[in-house]
Each structure stands twice: as C-alpha cells, then as structure tokens.
Amino acid sequence: MRDLSSSLPSASRRGVLKGVGGAALLGAGIPLLSACGSSGSSSDPKTVSVGSNDSDAVPKKAYADVYAAFQKQSGLTVKVNTKDHNTFQEQINSYLQGTPDDVFKWFAGYRMQFFAAKNLASPIDDVWEKIGGNFPDAMKKLSKGADGKYYFVPMTTYPWAVFYRKSVFAAKGYEVPTTWEQLVALCKQMKKDGLVPIAFGDKDAWPAMGTFDQINFRLNGYDFHVELMAGKASWTDAKVKAAFDHWAELLPYHQDGFMGRTWQDAAQTLVSKKAGMYLLGTFVAQQFTNKADLDDLDFFAFPEINSAYGQDTVEAPTDGFMVSKSPKNHDGVVKLLEYLGSPAAEELYLKGDPSVVAASNKASTASYSALQKKAFEMIGSAKSLTQFMDRDSRPDFTSTVMQPSLQKFLQNPKGVDSLLSSIERQKKTIFASS
Asked: Which residues fall within 8 angstroms of residue 199, CB to CB, at 6 or more apart?
C-alpha cells in the first residue's frame, strides 16, 4: 500500500516538509497557486470549487470518479483545480490567505488545526451533524480544531505497525510480542538466529520519526505526544529522555548502514527473509510484488511499554477535506462534504485506489485484502489516532530540527542530553514565529 501524502515514500517527501507553518511562507512573495487561487471560488450556486493536491494519476482518477458520482446525484458541478502535490504544500499559506477554492484537500490533526487557529478555514459542525455516525470516536477527535469545532472531513487513512513474515515466525517458533520486554527478547533471539531483527533505512531522514512516535506515545501517552509535537511540552522533559533511553535499548537490533539505505531497500530485506521485523506504514506492501510473498506478510501493533496506555494509540496519517475561510457556495459545500463523508463515497474512491483504507468505519470492507481489513480494524478500534511527526507538528520544525537531530541520535545515542537541549532551544525559536 503506497502512502500518497505526508509519509511519502520518495524523495519528494523533503519538499512536502517545507510546507505549512514556516514564517517565511507568510507574505514572502511566493506566488499563489495559480490554478486554485487565480480566480478564487465560484459564486455560481450550481458550482463548488475544490483545490486539490492529488496530482498523482491514481488518486486523481479515483477522486474524479467520486466527484462525477456526486455531480450526478446532486445536480451540482464540481470544479477541481489540481496542483502538483509538493507545490500545493509549499504554497498553502499564500493560497489560503488569497482567494482559495470553496473546499481544499488537506491533512488531519495539527496541520488542520494550524489553519483553523489562524481563521483560514471554516468550521463545519453542520456537516458533522449528518456524517458523525459514519466515523469512530478517534477519527472524530482527529477532525476537530483546538476550539472543539469540526474543520475536517476524513477520507482515507492507513496505519503504521510492525511488519513480519508469517512463515518466518512459524518456522522459528516466534510469537508476536505485546510488551516491550517481549519485543527486546524477540530481537535478541532473532539476532542469535542470524536474522536482522529490525529492518531499517533512514537515508531520507523521515522513517526514524515514525519510530520515535511509537515509543513516545506508548511510554508517555497520546496527550503528551500531542503537547510535545505542538511545542507545548519541553524536549528536555524527563519523559522525552525516557523515550530515547528505550530507543537506545532497541538500537543494537536495528539494521546496520541505515544512513545509506532507503525504506524500499530496507523492505527488501524483509521480502528476502533476511530481516525479522520492520516498523513502517502499510505502504511497505508495495515492495512485495510476488503474490505468495504478499500473502505471507502480516503485522502487529507496536508493543505496550506503559500499562497506563497499553496499545490504545495508532499512528494513522489521514487525508481529507477542509473548507476555506469564505466559501462562495456554502450550501453546495455542505452537500459535497456530506457526500464525501459517506461510506458510499469512500467505497467508490477505494475502487480506484486500493493503497489505503476508508476513514469511515461504516464503509464496506468486502473488497479489502487481508492486510487492508486488518489495517481498517486496527484504526477503527484505536482510542486515539496520531498523524506522524511532521503532520502533528510544524513541518519547518520537523524538517530543519527533528530530522537531523534524530539522525545524530541514531549515530551517537550517548549524546542525547545535549541533543535534547539543542532541540528545545530551536523549538522555542521556531514556535515563537507566526
């Protein structure tokens, strides 16, 4: 399953990370998104305009089918203005402050809340009165701004988890670990058995962020994760140090040479049964091109570290829609979002793009693969959902501070104290900017 947004498994991810949140983007002379921002949203009561970052062929076509179905059902016209994925992210501030479309494609969590707090998006509680029953509580929480109002309609999602080969576990007699102690013991056994316990590639600097997220919210809970990512908690807090101490305990079991290895290369060691486990998003499945290998792929939730939080949080980057600050066609916007928040719309989208799962827990899973069904169930049963570090925080902070800092830690875990002090100093500077 390929990730189509924040956790982009390609070099383009670095461009994405430079997007929202940078003070440099506010009034810095960056040209507005031409296709989306040149004429603004339409005042035609029969037209709803949508600003889209779905420039890749698969999601672009899948959404075209969804919009066509809505047009047929409603009699309204959906005018879609598609911009290159990275360009959309990089110019989103200027776009929303100019003459944006009625509706725009975006991400759940902090990135949504950032624009809601700046009054660059409209609350959509009226929409949620109709669609609320279609989503689990964790997805509802993910769609609210800091003021408690809804600003987001989720569409697609996927979880991060620990992947493994069923045949390898069966042959070696391994059992799925559910606690930290069991995970460490399994890593030791795998190493004795000549396997790489944990496949790992951090050449593009983002996979490590996913590992930190898992350890942090398993140890310190969802609320602390949110506070830390939002710049409210300190990186010198003992809780953060404890998270890095746990990670240091696991590092000897990570694959060597990770600085020069992409996530795709790391995945191949799982495909070839040279590695026992791999922590990543479900898009890892795209590396399993042989059906027998893919059928042998399975995953489990990252093990419990602190019994107070168990395994109640799942990292599930979620894409969906928001409404701009002054939509020209409010009634049309409401109708479109009510449709996009329906199981039928999600089911139609997934026919064209099976790389993700529906955000709605009412959508049919009949066409899902075994992996998709398991991913869907994991997300639907979670108490809380996180979005991945660069979505749950300011991307200018995660790209310029956290990516290089985590790589420094991976290469020198003993220098963590000074590293955390450095992160905290830089965080204060960045979050102080508007």
From this structure: 255, 266, 267, 269, 270, 275, 277, 278
SS3 assignment, position 100: coil
**Whole-model pTM?**
0.83
Mean pLDDT of 109-127: 94
Give residue 78's identity as a one-letter amino acid code: V
Phi and psi torsions of 286, nearest 5°: -70, -15
Among 262, 159, 249, smallest CA distance to 208 is for 262
Query: Quick one: DSSP state of residue 233?
Result: S
**Helix 330-340 and helix 343-352, axial crossing angle in degrees, nearest 10:** 70
* 5-38 residue pLDDT tens: 333 333 333 333 333 343 333 333 334 454 444 4
Rounded to 5°, the CA angle 17-21-26 comes to 120
Which is nearest to 375 in space by CA: 94, 173, 163?
163
Provide CB contacts within 8 A for 154, sequence distance 6+.
Answer: 108, 135, 139, 142, 143, 318, 319, 320, 341, 359, 360
Q: In what order do the strands lie in the sheet with 153-157?
A: 77-82, 47-52, 103-107, 318-323, 153-157, 357-358
Q: How far apart are CA 271 and CA 287, in angstroms?
A: 8
User: Dihedral of the CA atoms 410, 231, 109, 26 (nearest 10)?
Assistant: -110
Report in angstroms the alpha-carbon separations of 346 from 6, 107, 319: 20, 16, 12
Contacts of 289 (CB under 8 A, 6+ apart): none
The percent helix, strand, coil of the chain (3-state, each to 5) is 50, 15, 35
- 3-class DSSP state for residue 357? strand
Length of the chain, please? 434
Check: CB of residue 62 under 8 Å from CB of residue 353: yes
Q: Which residue has the tokens 């189509």?
A: 4
- The SS3 call for residue 253 is helix
Residues 152, 108 contacting (CB under 8 angstroms): yes
Summarised one tens digit per residue, pLDDT across range 59-117 is 899 999 999 999 999 999 999 999 987 788 878 888 999 999 999 999 998 889 989 99
pLDDT digit string, tens, across residues 270-315: 999 999 999 999 989 888 989 999 999 999 999 999 999 999 999 9
